[in-house]
Amino acid sequence: MRFVGQRRRDPLLVRVRGGSMELSVTSHPVNKHTEIVTGVSWSGSNELLTVGDDKVVWMWNAEGEPQATLLEVECFCTSLLWHPASQGRGGSELFVVGCTDGSFKLITKQGRLEKSVAAHQGAITAVRWSMDGTSLATCGEDKVVKSWSRNGMFRANLAEAEGTIYALAWSPESDQLLFTNGKHLVIRPLQPSSKQTMWKAHDAPVLSVDWNAVTGLIVSGGEDCKYRIWDGYGRQLYCSAAVEFSITSVAWAPNGRYFAVGSFNMLRLCDKTGWSYSRDQPSCGSLFDLSWTADSTQVAAASGSGAVLFGQLVHRELSCGAWEVRQEEGASLAVINVLDDSREDLQFKDRVTEMSLSSHHLIVITASQCCIYSTSNWNTPHISEQKGNVSLMLQSTTHFAIIDTINGLQILNYDGRVLSQPRFQGMRSEALSVSNVSYSQDMLAIVDQGEPKSVRLFDPLTAKALGVLQHTIDVEQIALSLSRAPRRLVLVDKNRDMYMTPVQGAQELNKLHVMVDTMRWNEDNVSLAAVADGHLVVWYYPETVLIDRDLLPLTIHKESAPELGKAAEIIDFRGTRVTVRRSDGAIVTFSISPYPSLLERFCSNNEWEPALRLCRYVKSKQLWAALAAMAVGGKELHTAEVAYAAIEEVDKLLFMCHIKELPTSEAREAELLLFRRRLPEAITVLVQSGWIYRAIKMCIHNFLWEKAYDLARQHQAYLDVVLFHRTKYLTNINREETIPKLQQLAQELGTVDEEQMRQKIEAEKARERERGGVGA
Questions:
Q1: If you average pLDDT over residues 465-486, what whole number do you get?
Q2: What is the DSSP letter of 687?
Q3: Phi, psi at residue 332, to the nearest 5°?
Q4: Average pLDDT over every residue of 218-229
Q5: Assuming Cys at both sites, which of 79, 142, 512, 695 could form a disulfide with 98, CB separation 3.0 to 4.6 Å?
Q6: Which residue(s) pair with 526 in the sheet?
Q7: Long-range contacts of 100-103, Cβ-Cβ distance < 8 Å, separation of 24 or more
Q8: Residue 572, CB half-sphere, CA atoms under 13 Å: how many?
Q9: In angstroms, rounded to a whole number, what is the distance separating the alpha carbons of residues 220 and 204?
Q10: According to the CATH classification, is domain 22-313 in 2.130.10.10?
Q11: Does residue 686 have a pLDDT over 70?
C-alpha cells in the first residue's frame, strides 16, 4: 500500500514537459519484523533478504510480498549481503550476515549455516563483498578493517581507525577499500607499499558510504545531516543542504545514474550529480540500510519501525524529436506525438527496466523481454527473450548496442538478431557507461578500463578491431561524431582538456578547449557543443582544427553561462537547440545560429555558389571563416580564395592563388595537404604520382634535408638539386655541414653544374605543364 499522509517534494524537483522520475514507495500492510530492520539485500534474481533485531531473516519477492522465514539467528544482526555472483547471473546460493558478537556467518539460500567466523572484538558494523566476489571485508567496533576469502579464511588486517568504523565500500576494481574514520573518509589500497588517502568528509561522524562501479563516484552521509559526492581522489563534487536528521544510509543504483538517501522518515532519490528527483516522507523511523535491484529499478529500505519499504522507479521520461515516452506505471508506457497530440499506450507483462528512444525506434527492456518498436508502427514490435540486466543501450540508424550482465556487449539489428559481440582482454561490461562508450553507424569506441589512456576502436558489424588510440593521460569521456563521414572522435581527459582526432588514417590529437565539464555532438550536423569554464561553447565546424587551426577561434560561438554550475550536462543537441541540465537539475535551453548548419549542408553537397551567397547575405565573420575551412577541405580553391579575402587573411589568400596556378591536380592536392600541416601525406601524393622533383623541393622548402636526400637517392634523381640548395642554405647562415649523408654527397658530386641542373628542372616543369594541359 502507498503511505498515507503528506508527500513533500523538494523545490528543485526537475520537471521536463510535465513529469519527472520518482520513487513510488510501498510497504506490506503488516510488518513481518517485530523490531527494527538492520539489513536488506537484493539478489540478481530479485529475491530480497531482510534481517532485524528480532533475529529473523525473511525472504521477499520483487512485488514486496513476504515469501518465507529463512532462519533465526542466535544473536543480533547488524548487516546482511548477498554474494555478488547473484548480480544478474542467476540466484546466489550464499549470503553473509554480520553480528553484534563480532562474528559473521556464511549462510546458504536454503538457510543452512555454512560457517561462523569470530572476526572482531565487539560488534561487526559492516560487511562488504568485493566487486568480483573473491574477497570479503569486515569492520567493527574494534576500529579494525579485515579482509577474508570467499570461504571465510582470514587474509589480513587492512587498516585501523581512531574510533568505530561505521561503513566501508570496495573500489570498482576491488583494489582499494573505503572506510569511515570519525569525520573522515579513508581510501586504503590493498598493496602494502601504497599510501592511503584520508580527507575530512563531514562536520560530524560519517555514518554511511557507497562507491559506484560504473562511474567511480563515492556518496557519503553523516551526522551533520548532509550527503556529499566525491570522486575517487577525495575531491568533493557536491554537498547537499542540511536535512532535519542524520543521514543514516546511502546507496548507488548499479547503473550509476542515481542514488538513494535514507534518514529519519525520509527516502530521497537523487541524480548522480546530487540534485533531487523526489523525496518521500514515510512514517517509519530511520532508514538503516538501502539496497537496489540489479536492474536499478527498485530500492528496498530497512526501517526503524520494522517495516520494509519498496521504492519503484516511475515517471521516467524520454524524448526525441516529436516523440515523448513516459513510464506511468511499472509495466506500462505512454508514447505521445507532441506535434498532433496522438497517444499510444504500451503494456508489458513485466515491469520496464530500461528503455531507449531515437527518431526511428523505441527499445524497451523488461524483466524478461526485449521489445523493439518502430516509431512508424506501434502495433507489431519485435520481441525476443532477454536474459540479464541491461545497463546501457545506444542506437544508430540500422543497429543498436546493448550491454547486459549475461552477454556483455552485443550489437543487434532492429529485428533483434545479434550481429556481433565486440570484446577485448580485460573488458568489464559492468563498468561500461555513456561516458566511456561511444557508438555510431560504422564505429564503436570503448575506453579500456585496464589502461584508461587507451581508446579501442571496433567495427560494430563484424567486431573487428580497428586500432587503438593512445593518449598521454587517462581518458574520462569520449564521443564519436554522429553525422556523415569522415568520423571524428572527441575525448575529455582527467585534466578536463578536450581533444579531437580522426579515427581513420593518421590519428592526431588536437586540443579544442580546457576545463570542459560536458560535451556533445549535434545529432543533425557536424557541430559540437561543450560547457567549459562557465561558458557554453559551440564549434560550428570543428573540422577546422584539422584544416586551418588559425581559423578555429573565428568559427566558435561562446556565451557566458555561469548559472549552469560545475556539474552541468548537455542532454540534447539537435538542430539549433542545446539542452543543458544545470547542476541543480533545472533544464536550460540555448539557441544558436541556423546559418552554419545550412552552410555545411551546401558545402557537403558541393553547392559552393549558394554557400557564397549565404555568407554575403549574413555578413558574419564566423560564417566566412567556416566557409574558408570547408572550401579548403573540399578542395574548392576559388571559394576558399573569396572566403579568405572576406576575413582579410591576406597571406592565406595569396597561398590559395599560388595553388590555383599549379599545373597538375596532384601538385594542387599536395600543396593543400601541406597547408593543412599534413606534410608526410603531401610528399606521399607527389611520390606516388611520379613528381619526384616537386616532392624533393617540398622537403627542401620545409628544411627536411635528410628526407630530401633519401628521396633523391631512392629514385637516383635530383641529388644535385639537394646539394645545391643545401650548400646555398649553409652559406647564408654561415655554418658547416653536419649531416653525414650530405657530407658524403658533397664528396661524390663535387661542384654542382648549375646550368645543367636548371635545364633538368625546366624539363620537369615542362612535363608538369604538359600533363596539366592534357588533364584540362
A1: 89
A2: H
A3: -145, 150
A4: 96
A5: 79
A6: none
A7: 100/75, 100/76, 100/124, 101/75, 102/140, 102/142, 103/75
A8: 17
A9: 12
A10: yes
A11: yes
Cell of 207: 555514518
Query: What is the per-residue DSSP string for 456-508?
Result: EEE-TTT--EEEEEE-SS-EEEEEE--SSSSPEEEEEETT--EEEEESSSS--
What is the Cβ-side half-sphere exposure of residue 607, based on CA atoms within 13 angstroms? Answer: 12
For 581-608, write each residue's pLDDT tens digit: 988 888 899 999 999 999 999 999 999 9
Q: Are 80 and 41 in contact (CB under 8 A)?
A: yes
501 is written with which cell numbers? Answer: 582526432
Lowest mean per-residue pLDDT among 86-100, 268-282, 593-607:
86-100
What one-character DSSP code corresponds to residue 195?
P
**DSSP state at residue 262:** E
Q: What is the pLDDT of residue 773?
A: 63
pLDDT tens, residue by residue, 515-562: 999 999 998 899 999 999 889 999 999 999 999 999 999 999 999 998
Q: Judge whether 412 and 402 are in contact, CB under 8 Å.
A: yes
Q: Residue 104 forms beta bridges with which residues?
A: 98, 117
* DSSP type of residue 191: S
Is residue 245 pLDDT above 70, yes or no?
yes
Place of cell 585496464: 450
Among 17-26, 286-295, 370-379, 501-510, name the one with the lowest average pLDDT.
17-26
Band of residue 775 on the pLDDT scale cut at 50, 70, 90: very low
Mean pLDDT over 46-72 rounds to 90
Grid cell 571496433 in the structure block, residue: 458
Q: Where in the chain is the domain with CATH 2.130.10.10?
A: 22-313
User: Residue written as cell 519527472?
Assistant: 20
Give the Å distances, CA to CA, from 416 to 348, 388, 391, 551, 555: 17, 16, 17, 46, 42
3-class SS at 376? coil
| Residue type at position 160 | E
Q: Distance between CA atoms of 20 and 279, rounded to whole angstroms? A: 12
Task: Return the number of other C-beta atoms located less than 10 Å from residue 464's C-beta.
Answer: 11
Three-state secondary structure call for residue 690:
coil
Cα radius of gyration rounded to whole Å, the chain: 32
DSSP 264: B
Residue 396's SS3 state is coil
Element containing residue 325 per DSSP (H, E): strand 323-329
The beta-strand segments (E) located in 83-235 are: 94-99, 103-108, 113-118, 124-129, 135-140, 144-149, 154-160, 168-170, 176-181, 184-189, 197-200, 206-211, 218-222, 227-230
Q: Which of 79-93, 129-143, 275-289, 612-626 has the lowest mean pLDDT?
A: 79-93
Cell of 134: 573473491
Q: What is the largest CA-CA distance in the chain?
A: 108
Euclidean distance between the first and the last CA atom of the chain, given in angstroms as a whole number: 83
Give dist(CA 774, CA 219) in Å, integer.
72
Rounded to whole angstroms, the Cα distance separating 333 from 640 reads 52
Interhelix angle for 719-733 vs 754-775, to 10°? 120
111-115 contacts at long range (C-beta below 8 A, 24 or more positions apart): 111/57, 111/70, 111/71, 113/71, 115/151, 115/152
Q: Which residues have a Cβ under 8 Å from the Cβ of 680 and sit 6 or more positions away? A: 506
Provide the residue type at 48 as one letter.
L
Q: Could you give phi then psi for residue 756, rounded to 5 degrees? A: -65, -40
Would you state the pLDDT for residue 14?
33
Contact 28, 311 (CB under 8 A): no
As to burial, measured by CB atoms within 10 angstroms (0-12 exposed, 13-18 middle, 19+ buried), residue 763 is exposed
Set of cell numbers at residue 176: 582499494
